[in-house]
Write a structure and sequence with these properties.
4-stranded mixed β-sheet; 12 strands; Beta Polymerase, domain 2; alpha+beta; 36% helix
Length: 282
Amino acid sequence: MDSNLRSLSSYGTQIVLSLAEDGRRELDRSEIIARLGISKDSADKVIRSLRRKGWLERASRGRYLLIPPDQGPEVIGESNLLALASRIAEPYYFAYGTAAAHYGLTTQVRNVVWIATTRSGYRQRELLGASIRFVHLTPRKFFGYESVSVFGYPVLMSDREKTIIDCVDRINLAGKASEVRRMIAAAARRIDWEKILRYLEQIGSVSLMQRFGFLAATTEAGIPPDARARLKQRLHPSTRSILGPAKKPARAIGYDRDWQLMVHLTPQDLGGEVALDPKPAA
């Protein structure tokens, strides 16, 4: 018997090994009762024992996630956290700062997990020492995600391109403007610019296009000329948007003619000097 299983009771061993052999990682109380042929009270004792020893974690009301025997009960970390959190909402995908960290676009360590969903009513909760928070998205913004493996657990995560767009759309959920600007610079040579443009056009927000265009164009990586031209075609002479708070603070950058954007942020807010194009937008 695997040394990791020696501390388990016979019932506990049956549950862990049977699920592992079936290639499954989820079960509920009724399944334990059926598999073992025991009472509800006895099933609760098995569950408490497996949780205490680190073999099961509660995913949602009445449902549990198995920590498989090849990983052992010591594996309690972000991999389990995301696997557990993925069972809370439906539909869902991990987004914003959580997705950015997954792709290595940020080095900031956060104890907040952001989950995007089209359903309302989910409340913030604590899980394995982290705060699980939900962002309600309209259906037109709920796309651009895929199944990824996080230490062996398949979860739904926004892809690189949608991660960047989501972070620009909701900067406060990704850190600060300076951090989002660094994310764009870090991703610039790894993202599919055609997909970025298609996603922005699918969402259809000119303000989001302006904010993305400004942040991308003012990074060292820049923005490809064809992508820049395609975005600017969406702007109109009367188009005006704001990046930053509604009220312009002292020493703010001000109006950027190129993207027809009121930048209510200082150069420090953006992480350094920002060169603006003095010429009117074409």
